[in-house]
Amino acid sequence: MDLYSGHINKLIEELAALPGIGSKSAQRLAFHLINMPQDKVQRLADTIVEAKANVRYCKECFTLTDRDICPVCANKNRNHKMIMVVENTRDLAAYEKTGRYEGVYHVLHGAISPMLGIGPGEIKLKELIERLKGEVEEVIIATNSSLEGETTAMYISKMIKPTGIRVTRIASGVPVGGDLEYIDEVTLLRALDGRIEL
Ligand code: ZN
Fold first, then answer.
1. Is the dihedral of CA 151, 106, 126, 57 positive or negative?
2. Is the pTM for the entire model greater than 0.90?
């Protein structure tokens, strides 16, 4: 039964397809948007389209940025010989917020998950290996402590070991299954300081 007009249904459908938005939230958002002034809706729509058009991967670390090289990679004061591997840009942001990490990052955009059919080729691992040809002293693996994160950490460690580059894993101050982005700064720093050799 069609309760709403086709346009509203379409809007609800599109919103409900976003992560973390159930059908009830999608309905609420849809009606909120419909009731918003035209110019505000336009601004929101433009912002989404512009972000999509202008945001790209940093050529070095693959984080999302609107420049060729992101501000972290472009900063000469950072230690470019230390690379922290994270699953996504949100995790990078979490460590950046601590203001204490001086190295650079590598963003994988995912983690290996045999269950979901995500293999090593689906995340930015080749690109990491490519970077190791430069001058790198340590790779800190800061993937989440979920099954996927641990699998990925093990895979990377095995991959890097033969190169002789130091490989470490952030300590388990990070709760099991915990997403880095939700963890407080003190815990993040403790995990970094207490990192262990792999
Ligand atoms: Zn970068």
1. positive
2. no
Cα–ligand 1 centroid distance for 2 (angstroms): 48
Q: Give pLDDT tens digits for 175-196.
A: 555 566 667 777 788 888 878 8
Ligand 1 centroid, distance to 75 Cα (angstroms):
9
- The CA 20 to ligand 1 mean position distance, Å, reads 28
Closest C-alpha among 50, 27, 19 to residue 11: 27
Distance separating alpha carbons of residues 12 and 198, to the nearest angstrom: 47
Identify the three-state secondary structure at position 157: helix
Quote the ligand 1 centre to 104 CA distance (angstroms): 7
pLDDT mean for each 10 residues of the chain (198 residues): 80 94 94 96 96 94 95 97 96 91 96 91 94 94 91 94 92 62 76 83
The rounded distance, in Å, linking the Cα atoms of 79 and 150 is 26
The tally of CA atoms less than 13 A away on the side-chain side of residue 144 is: 23
Among residues 91, 63, 112, the alpha carbon closest in space to that of 183 is found at: 91
